[in-house]
Amino acid sequence: MQPIIMDPGSTSLEQRPALVLTKRRSRKRFPEGCVTLTDTEADAIAGANPEKDLHAALVYGPSPSSEGLRLYYLVRWL
Which residues in 17-42 are b (16+ Cβ under 10 Å) and which e? Predict the structure, then answer.
C-alpha cells in the first residue's frame, strides 16, 4: 500500500488519536464504524483492550471511499 498523502491545508481531514476495533492489525484503513476518536494519545492508550481487539492508533481522516464509506487511514499504532 502506498504511503498516506496528508494535506496540511485540509479543513475536513486531520490526524487524530483513536481506538480501532480490528482483529487484523495488518490493515491500513478502517471504516468509520470501527474507529472511536479520542482527545489524546494517552486516552487512546488507556482505552485499548487487545483481548477485545480494541487497539490504540493514530489515524487520518475521515475520507470518502469509492464505495460510499468514510474511511480512516492508519498513521501508526500507539
Answer: bbbbeeeeeeeebbeeebbebbeeee
Can you tell me the distance from the alpha carbon of 14 to that of 47, in angstroms, rounded to the nearest whole number? 21
Structure confidence by residue, pLDDT tens digits, 18-54: 999 999 989 999 999 999 999 999 999 999 999 999 9
Q: Is 68 left (phi over 0), alpha (psi -120 to 50) or beta?
A: left
Would the pTM count as exceeding 0.90? no
Task: Please give the DSSP secondary-structure letter assigned to residue 4.
Answer: P
